[in-house]
Amino acid sequence: MNVVLLVVIVVFVLILFGNMVKIVRPYQKGVLERLGKYQVTLNSGINLVIPFFDKLRYVDIRERVVDVPPQDVITKDNVVVTVDAVIFYQVMDPPKSIYNIRNFNYAISKLAQTNLRNLIGTLALDESLTSRETINTDLRMILDEATDIWGVKVKRVELQRIEPPADVTEAMHRQMKAERDRRAIILEAEGQRQAAIEKATGERQADILQAEGQGKAIQIVADANKYQKIALATGESEAVERVYKAIHNGNPTKDLIAIKYLETLEKLADGKATKMIVPFESSGILGSLAQIKEIFEKDTKTDIE
Question: How many structural domains compose the chain?
Fold first, then answer.
């Protein structure tokens, strides 16, 4: 009898000890109630409670996800689109999440659907398709403010899809194709215009270079002719000077006139004229020529000796 009583006592103590020791996991918080009244929030680890008087409720504080079901929403320009989203949230105040809301997932899903209708209803179809980030941010702010009383923090809101009707989608595809074709035509025309400009510019540059080359060539020929004339004049000058020095006696001016006279006679002889008029003073000139001849013969004889 004593053994049975001892066994009963040991079992009772074990049960009592098991009810006293509560383990809270690292991703949990413990909401302790005593006789139906909230007492304290317990952290992770081993915690002692009073059996039969205390009740411990565990709250998961990890970030969780709520899937908002697809729904039809009318845009500002009266186009029906199908929208769905996902909500990421985390419990920040465990007592509020237990006592202030009964079914949090259902409540936040309905709240998100209602506000999605309001937000997309203020946007046209094109704006709603290109303003995902704006819709996400606005919806997150609305939900975060509304769920603050529930002890929950809405971390992110992401729209999964905004899907217009099939006929609207097809029309949008045709519009996009027409826009791409228009851009292609514009780019092609712009390319042809640029090519024509470049071609005209090249031809103009070629003409300019050709004209400059011709100008330089003309200048070079003119310079060559000028230098040739200068050389001829210089040679004639030196010849006249040598003749003048060769004449030691007589009138130099008269002798020079005689030389020019002979050059003129040579040119006249090249013509077709059958008659030639000799000037009146030709006797003096002929005398000078005779003197020049004697001087040249004398100089030549001297050179030979």
Answer: 4
